[in-house]
Write a structure and sequence with these properties.
Helices cover about 50% and strands about 20% of the residues. It has a 5-stranded mixed sheet. Strand 2 and strand 3 form a beta hairpin. It starts with a strand and ends in a 7-residue tail after the last helix.
């Protein structure tokens, strides 16, 4: 499974591609950051993020895109920018028919470090270890993008089985009942 992880942000949008399957060593195929100038118009910044993500999709051809789920922070302006960058990533993937999964920061931290309260340094250290890298990816947004991809690779099979079970249960519950004579 090849996954593009996206840690959305208007100034720095982390991107990272990981390939692998649960229970086997993972391979990093690329990591980076799509940057936009702080003083640029919002529309131009979103176009720059779109162009950057499109380049990553063209180059790496992921099967899935994992995006950090936007959560409420104290700074509404930061949340808005993160949500807008997140939407651009989802749009780029949807345009190509690539499935998108959203993972919360605590889900990602728990998957990669074992605790949902890990700090950035712990996430970076575990990403470095899991991908057998010489040093943690910099900036932290890049490491977070790789962590998102790792989280998706490890969690997707279980999530898919759960969704299939729910769909089967729903289908059985809504199926017309047979008549008895």
């Amino acid at each position: 499974m090849r996954v593009l992880g996206v840690d959305p942000g208007l100034t720095r949008c982390g991107v990272g591609v990981v390939e692998g399957v649960p229970g086997r060593p993972l391979t990093m195929l690329g990591v980076g950051v799509v940057r936009t100038p702080v003083d640029a118009d919002l529309g131009h910044r979103l176009v720059a993020i779109e162009q950057g993500i499109e380049q990553w999709l063209d180059e790496h051809r992921p099967e899935f895109v994992a995006v950090e789920r936007v959560f409420s922070q104290h700074n509404v302006r930061t949340v808005m920018g993160t949500a807008q960058a997140s939407a651009v990533a989802m749009l780029c993937a949807a345009r190509r028919g690539i499935p998108v999964a959203l993972h919360t920061p605590s889900e990602v931290k728990a998957a990669v470090t074992g605790t949902g309260r890990a700090d950035k340094a712990q996430v970076g250290a575990m990403v470095t270890r899991l991908l057998r890298l010489a040093a943690p990816p910099r900036p932290a947004d890049a490491a977070d993008a790789l962590a998102l991809a790792i989280c998706h690779i490890w969690r997707a099979p279980a999530q898919n089985r759960l969704q299939q079970a729910i769909a089967l249960h729903t289908a059985q519950a809504t199926a017309p009942k047979g008549r008895t004579a």
